[in-house]
Design brief:
heterodimer; A: about 180 residues; mainly alpha; Rna Polymerase Sigma Factor, Chain: A; Arc Repressor Mutant, subunit A; 2 domains; 9 helices; globular; B: about 700 residues; 4 domains; three-stranded antiparallel β-sheet; two-stranded antiparallel ribbon; 11 strands; about 5% strand
Chain lengths: ~180, ~700
């Protein structure tokens, strides 16, 4: 991890090293919680960028020793709501009630998060080469299921279906592994 | 969370993730997630998985928008989820034979040790080779096959036609009706070639290597179990094996289709489908059975049978087909409506009784009640009839119609609590009552005709499933715009052929049994792990799937194994009565809106105990009662090898392999030695040891499986 101690020393407004560390560690969970409120990758990406700007701007308000992630999630949730208002003409969106429920639930379930992440890694290794390749292609930067289908010359629905099945298999595999780990 | 909900939730979440969800999908997803904390949890895990995959694979960490954090390692976990291309670890499906495993366990009980060679049998649902003992522990327990027991799904892609396209959602929602002009569907050979061509083209597209041909031993057992509902006798196996005619498979299919056992078997299958196995309902099950046996025996058109089942009148004892509706007219004919749709159309309408179908938006409540309205004139009348012989009064249930030009519509409540009415309407036709014809007769005219192509589609789908173990849809009787068809052109072609040959049931079965796919071995060739419907994948029929015996098949096969002549099995009377009574231990009728049944014939303790020491197994392994066993044991001219061979043949319809024979011989000798050392006379010791061997064969899972 490389930080810039010079900058933080020379600029009193610049957050300290600890803050930066917390900030970077929170990126993934933050993204996941935004994603679960919006459903779509690109939208979540946009909101994450905006959330990060706010977190940065408000860094002085953060009290060391309190839960950084919880604080950041609150900001993220607020940004999700703002984003929704801006896109109010967009029809494909969840309701406030849904978003609130999801936001709340996300903050309360994080213990097994790291376990699931490790399990996923193992589970990916258990895919057949073919499946593995497909899922890697799907998640190439900037790719989507639709573009992937075009690139492969397959009907979009068929690619969606394959992806769905692979993700289902992964979900089940992760769940099993975590269950096994918890009980042993 | 119910499986149904879980499935729907998965689909909806996928639609959101891949950005093809509609506004309605969003709303539906919300409703499900908000209704149940477990659903919420499940949704979150799904999104978390998606997000993690995206985060790692897309290298998201390197493009933070905050300039100050440039170049920082943004990962808390040092390892990305996608490890580098080190994927040599092969995880070829392990060849555990469940059957071999269970034989070993059971043999341990009797003190015999026997090795059944691994690859005699089809692989069980694929397990994954893993280094992690914990994972293995949780996955190898494949028997309680809940949805969680699926280990890995290899993801075949769907054949090019996609039922999800909106264009496909038309009223006859099944495969697109492309004119199959080039095939002459009234020519048997052409239909068989059509099936072969359709399946082979998918194999080619996906690069699937079909399994090799099934051996004659495997095939002869398969065709007997499928068509006659029992294993072949040793004599039947031998005669087939020694037959050198190139047409011997065709000849056997034809002779079985023409046999009494065929009509008996399918009468029994369809009696179960129509009224269940339990005898708790107030109907005459045997009359219905006798009626169906006649229909299959005379090879009546399927439309005719369906028409008669829907229109029959009279008492349970005098009118066989009337028993179908007599069983289901309770609850304002709700079961009759739901079961008619499910059994004859393979459509699950029962949930539309109360609300619009959750996935198929064009299936509203009205559709259910418009069919239901046809049964509104029909009623069950209880009459007392004086028996002419005894003079006693007997209560009889009689199916009859209150024919009147004034139609009483079906009333139902919408989800909003508003009372609605539905008038009889089917296949786009409103039916007004007439003076002389009952409403359900008018319904049957529409239902059992080409106006209702789904009737043929459903019968083809079900028959295919009966013979291959898997249907063209994931659930055989859940067809509709929401369920994908694995081979739409094939299904559509078979539907057309079935219609054009006048709904000829036997011909349909003949085509399927003579197709190339039906000849294949149930042991997959290497690398064909694309074809794993057992693990939830799409069936490609590139091998035969193993089918567990139904309760009836098991009963009949144990009788054959005990040496009961096959003719005795089909004589209705004692044998029928005995079988019916035996079945009762496994099935319990439920009086719910679908008139369903619950069963313990599913590997439960009842099921297992029955195999270990139930009457039938006792009888088959009793030296005095079992003709098969006695003949083999008593004949002094038989060598030890002959005896082992013949016991194996009688139980499994095949000879043991060399290693099996070696192992069995060794154990058998040990057993005999052990017994004689306990002062048991040599003759008795031999008999008992052979009996134990036969018991082990019958208790192997190989025995209870159609391979």
């Amino acid at each position: 991890m490389t930080t810039r101690p010079d900058a933080s020393l020379s600029n009193p407004d610049f957050p300290g090293e600890e803050f930066i560390q917390l900030f970077t560690q929170a990126q993934r969970p933050l993204y996941l919680s935004i994603l679960s409120q919006l459903g779509r990758i690109q939208a979540a990406e946009e909101v994450l960028q905006e959330t990060n700007l706010i977190i940065w701007a408000k860094s002085s308000q953060f009290e060391t020793g309190t839960n950084f992630l919880a604080w950041a999630r609150q900001i993220a949730h607020f940004e999700v709501m703002k984003w929704r208002q801006r896109k109010s003409r967009e029809k494909l969106m969840f309701s406030d009630e849904f978003i609130n429920t999801v936001a709340q639930q996300v903050s309360s379930t994080s213990e097994e998060f790291a376990m699931r992440q490790r399990a996923l890694e193992d589970c990916l290794n258990k895919l057949s080469d073919q499946d593995r390749e497909l899922i890697e292609l799907r998640y190439q930067p900037g790719n989507s299921g639709k573009e992937l289908a075009e690139a492969l010359g397959r009907p979009a629905n068929s690619v969606y279906q394959s992806l769905g099945r692979i993700r289902k298999a992964l979900l089940e595999c992760v769940q099993r592994k975590v269950a096994a780990e918890v009980t042993t | 969370m119910r499986t149904h909900t879980r499935h729907e939730l998965l689909k909806l979440t996928e639609a959101v993730i891949e950005d093809y969800a509609t506004q309605e999908d969003y709303a539906r997803l919300e409703a499900i997630v908000l209704s149940d904390p477990e659903c919420l949890e499940f949704y979150l895990k799904h999104l978390e998985l998606h997000g993690n995959l995206y985060w790692d694979a897309a290298g998201r960490g390197h493009s933070l928008s905050i300039p100050e954090s440039d170049g920082m390692e943004t990962e808390s976990s040092p390892k990305a989820v996608f490890p580098q291309k080190d994927r040599r670890r092969a995880w070829a499906p392990r060849r555990i034979s469940t059957i071999a495993a269970s034989v070993l366990t059971l043999l341990a009980v009797t003190g015999i040790w026997l090795r059944i060679s691994d690859n005699r049998l089809a692989d069980p649902p694929v397990l994954v080779e893993t280094d992690d003992p914990r994972l293995e522990e949780t996955t190898s327990n494949g028997n309680d096959s809940s949805e969680d027991s699926i280990v890995e799904v290899h993801l075949p892609e769907r054949s090019p036609s996609q039922p999800q396209d909106e264009t496909l959602v038309n009223n006859s929602h099944q495969p697109q009706d492309q004119p199959q002009a080039e095939v002459n569907f009234t020519d048997d050979q052409a239909v068989v070639e059509f099936i072969n061509h359709q399946l082979a083209s998918t194999w080619n597209d996906l690069g699937i290597d079909p399994a090799p041909q099934a051996s004659d031993e495997d095939w002869v057992r398969r065709i007997f179990v499928d068509l006659a509902g029992r294993i072949p006798t040793p004599a039947e196996v031998k005669s087939f094996l020694s037959n050198s005619s190139p047409d011997k498979r065709t000849d056997l299919v034809d002779s079985l289709l023409a046999s009494r056992e065929f009509s008996y078997n399918f009468a029994s299958v369809w009696t179960n489908l129509l009224v269940g196995r339990s005898r708790e309902r107030e109907i005459d099950r045997e009359e219905l059975f006798a009626y169906l046996e006649r229909q299959f025996g005379e090879n009546r058109a399927w439309t005719q049978t369906v028409h008669e089942l829907l229109t029959a009148t009279g008492s349970a004892e005098e009118s066989g087909p009337a028993n179908y509706l007599l069983a289901h007219l309770n609850n304002e004919a709700v079961p009759a409506t739901a079961i008619t749709a499910r059994i004859f159309l393979c459509e699950q309408l029962q949930c539309t009784q109360c609300h619009r179908h959750p996935i198929v938006s064009e299936w509203g409540q009205n559709r259910f009640w418009e069919i239901n309205a046809f049964f509104q004139q029909t009623e069950v009348r209880n009459t007392l009839i004086t028996d002419q012989k005894s003079g006693e009064k007997i209560r009889k249930r009689v199916l009859t119609d209150e024919i009147s030009p004034e139609v009483e519509p079906a009333y139902y409540e919408s989800l909003q609590g508003v009372m609605q009415v539905a008038y009889p309407r089917f296949a786009g036709e409103d039916v007004t009552p007439e003076e002389s014809v009952s409403l359900r007769a008018r319904f049957a005219n529409l239902f059992a005709s080409e106006q209702n192509p789904q009737l043929a589609v459903a019968f083809v789908n079900r028959t295919w499933q009966q013979l291959f173990g898997f249907a063209f849809t994931q659930e055989v009787d859940d067809m509709g715009p929401h369920s994908d068809v694995s081979h739409p052109e094939l299904l559509s072609g078979l539907r057309q052929a079935f219609e054009e040959t006048g709904y000829d049931v036997r011909r349909l079965m003949r085509w399927i049994c003579l197709s190339d796919a039906y000849q294949l071995s149930s042991t997959a060739s290497e690398d064909s792990n694309l074809d794993e419907p057992e693990a939830g994948g799409i069936p490609y029929f590139s091998r035969m799937y193993t089918k567990p015996f139904s309760a009836e098949q098991l009963f009949n096969s144990l009788m054959i194994a005990a040496g009961v002549p096959s003719e005795e099995l089909t004589s209705r009377g004692d044998a029928f009565e005995k079988r019916e009574n035996w079945l009762q231990q496994f099935f319990i009728a439920m009086d719910n809106e679908e008139n369903s049944e619950s069963t313990t014939f599913d590997g439960s303790i009842t099921h297992t105990l029955m195999m270990i020491n139930g009457d039938l197994v006792q009888q088959a392994t009793d030296l005095n009662q079992s003709r098969v066993l006695r003949d083999i044991v008593v004949d002094p001219k038989k060598s030890e090898t002959d005896r082992i061979n013949e016991l194996c043949l009688a139980a499994l319809s095949r000879y043991p392999t060399e290693p099996e024979l070696e192992a069995i011989r060794k154990t058998l000798r040990n057993q005999i030695r052990l017994r004689t050392s306990q002062n048991i006379p040599a003759k008795v010791a031999v008999g008992e040891s052979l009996r134990d061997l036969y018991w082990a064969f019958l208790n192997s899972s190989e025995f209870s499986v159609n391979r």
